Amino acid sequence: MTTPTIELKPSSRPLSDTERDAILASPGFGRHFTDHMVTVKWTEGRGWHDGQLVPYGPLSLDPATNVLHYAQEIFEGLKAYRQPDGTVATFRPDMNAKRFQHSAWRLGMPELPVETFIEACDALVQQDKDWVPAHGGEESLYLRPFMIATEVGLGVKPANEYLFVVIASPAGAYFPGGVKPVSIWLSEDRVRAVPGGVGDAKTGGNYAASLLAQAEAAAKGCDQVAYLDAVEHKWVEELGGMNLYFVYGNKIVTPTLTGSLLAGVTRDSLLQVARDLGYEAEETRVSIDQWQADTESGALTEVFACGTAAVITPVGTVKRATGEWKQSGGEAGEVTMRLRNALLDVQRGTAEDRHGWMHKLG
Question: Any alpha helices (H) in 83-203, and if so which ranges?
Answer without folding.
Answer: 93-106, 114-127
